[in-house]
Each structure stands twice: as C-alpha cells, then as structure tokens.
Design brief:
Helix content is about 30%, strand content about 20%. By secondary structure, it is of the alpha/beta class. The protein has a single domain (about 5-200), classed as P-loop containing nucleotide triphosphate hydrolases (Rossmann fold). Helix 4 (about 155-170) links the parallel strand 6 (about 145-150) and strand 7. The termini are close together. Bound molecules: guanosine-5'-triphosphate and magnesium ion (MG).
C-alpha cells in the first residue's frame, strides 16, 4: 500500500460519535498492550501517530486515522484505520472497561463500513481467555486476519511453532483465517498484513 497521506481524523468514545461518511474501515482489535497502536504506526511508517505505552489502557476511544483521503469530501476518498481500546483488560475502572467491551462488541458485529478486522495476539503466549472470546465474537462479522505481535521476542524456530499452533487451533474451531507473524519493531510481516487488508478493502 502506498501511503500518500495520513491524518488523525477523530476519537470516537461512543457509538453515536462514529463517523457517518461511509468510508471503508480496517479495525485493530485485541487485548490491552498487545501492540495494536504500534502495529498501526508500523504499517503507515510513522513513529507515533497512534500513541503507544508500556502501560495497558493507553488507547481510550476508537481512534480514526484517514489514509489517502481528503477532508471534507463526503467520504469519497481513502479509508480509515481504526485503533481500538484494549479488549477486556485495561488499567481503567470496571465501569469503563465494561463500556468499552460493549462498544467494541457492537462495533465488530454491527458496523456496516467495517471491511476487515485485524485481530492481534501476543506471539509469546498461548491465546488468552480474552483472545478466545474475540475468536467467537468475531464469527459472522467482517472478514478477519489474525496477527501475532512482538515476533522479535522469539527465535525464528519459535515463531514458526507459534504460527503453526495458532493455525491449527483456528482450524479446530472451524475458522478459516490467515495468520501473519509480525514485529512492529523490526518491520516483519507488514507487507503480508497490507496484502490482506488490500484484499478486503
Ligand atoms: N518488542 C516489541 N515490542 C512491541 C511491539 N509492538 C508493541 N510493542 C510494545 O508493547 C507495548 C504496548 O504497545 P501498544 O501499541 O501501546 O499496545 P496497544 O495494544 O495499543 O495497547 P492499549 O492501547 O493499551 O490497548 C509498548 O511498550 C510497545 O513498545 C513489537 O513488535 N516488538
Ligand atoms: Mg493502543
């Protein structure tokens, strides 16, 4: 994907505040701290357009980034990358966490302009209970690509094992979805993620 232009478009903390211009959307979903904002930055080749942090709970709304589009033009050009808050766990209040979980759940199942969901899983660990919850939640919604993050923390051999394990696990659940191992730090897998995104856009 050639990134000619990217800009922060809006932070949407509620369903009512999502954009209504109909541009296609690509969403980044996964538990807090898994590397959603970092992957978005790496994909567009910008260090810090999406804010990242070692502390879970950095992203506090659905953050919309407009790629290759001009505002305002009634949504005729470009598409949105949407950086979501952490699913399920984040260092925020119980009430806030429940509100996000509900909003994210509704967003991934009901959002008409959503073209593809990039579901992120930490390559260092087995899928957690929250990851499993997302496997199920995303069934029947938009197409998805599963991305293993922080691949630079594993050896080449461990990377291959993780990828194969996850592919097998997804297969056993009847989920036919691509798996890509990435490192936002080293740039691994970014071309493959873009190819999948372009396929669904
Ligand atoms: N080594 C390594 N660290 C990474 C990578 N991607 C993200 N991180 C680190 O993981 C931490 C969390 O990254 P974020 O991108 O903020 O995670 P997030 O999923 O957006 O987190 P929330 O916004 O809290 O939901 C940061 O300290 C990043 O530097 C990667 O590919 N390699
Ligand atoms: Mg984030």
């Amino acid at each position: 994907m050639k990134i000619r232009h990217i800009e922060f478009a809006r932070a949407a903390p509620t369903w009512a505040s999502l954009p209504d211009d109909g541009r296609p959307e690509v969403a980044f979903v996964g538990r807090s701290n898994v590397g959603k904002s970092s992957l978005l930055n790496a994909l567009v080749g910008r260090k810090n357009i999406a804010r990242t942090s070692g502390t879970p709970g950095k992203t506090q709304a659905l953050n919309y980034y407009l790629v290759n589009g001009k505002q305002p033009d009634d949504g005729r050009s470009g598409f949105y990358l949407v950086d979501l808050p952490g699913f399920g766990y984040a260092k925020v209040s119980k009430t806030q966490r429940a509100a996000w979980q509900q909003l994210i759940g509704r967003y991934v199942t009901e959002r008409a302009s959503l073209r593809v969901v990039v579901q992120l899983i930490d390559s260092r660990h087995e899928p957690t209970r929250l990851d499993e919850e997302l496997f199920e939640l995303l069934r029947g919604g938009a197409p998805r690509v599963v991305v293993l993050t922080k691949g630079d923390k594993l050896s080449k051999n461990q990377q291959r094992i993780r990828e194969a394990q996850l592919q097998k696990r997804l297969g056993s659940m009847g989920l036919e979805v691509p798996v890509v191992l990435t490192s936002a730090e080293k740039g691994t897998g970014l071309d493959a993620v873009w190819r999948w995104i372009e396929t669904f856009l």
